Amino acid sequence: MTRVTVVTVLMLACLALVFTGCPKKQTVALPDYDILVAADGSGDFESIGAALMAADEGDVIFVRAGTYYEDVEVETDRVKLIGAGPDRTVIDADGEYAAVTIDADNCRVEGFCLRGADSHGAYVRDGHHAIQHCLIIENGDRGVYFSSFSGEPSAVIDHCTIVENEVSGIYIPAQTSKTRVTNCIIAGNGRGIVADDDEGLMTVDWNCAWEDGDEFDRVEESLGENNIIEDPNLDRSFQPGPGSPCIGAASDGTNIGCF
User: Fold this and answer.
1) What is the pLDDT of residues 84-94, one digit of tens each?
2) Around 111, how many Cα atoms within 13 Å sit in the side-chain half-sphere?
3) Is 0.85 surpassed by the pTM of this model?
């Protein structure tokens, strides 16, 4: 191919880009939602609490990226509270009792970082819920706490990273077959998953736990065969670093944890 031909081909390629545009980066599509929360005022509400007060049963609340200094209370059944991702949407309790308290039924909390609570990242008081793809860190007591004083709480906790909570990662006083802890990283807490009695009713499988010998306390009868007791080797953003045993090790072939 001559130099003239090469130049001609390059010019034609540039003209094609002018008229057709460059390839676009892949973006995350917004979920279908009923209420939009945005700290910059571009949504229906600027605070998550205000959105929850306005929510009807079954509403989907999408929370755009940002740090929200709130202690959030979910009290309406079947509400789905969805963040833009655990590395993008933060609920910081700023020293209040819990970042998120759930006192309803059949709710879902997904795509958040829950941090900064005096006690718990997520406080489940009653009902059955889903807590998924959340980063639950740096809370003064438990990462996830199932109440032992009110109701009969249970949850599916899946693809969460629960680290650096002072007392324990997850505390489940009363076991139930509805409770499942799967595909989670539970590391660097005071203890890992803790129950009052080892009844063997719940499911604990496909997790990576590393708590200096206190990974599982009175949950041995609930353990599946695919848990990893090994340092998850997280980087400073709590994502699996090179050589982490969590990479590609989840039940669905993705990474264990929220990333």
Assistant:
1) 999 999 999 99
2) 17
3) yes
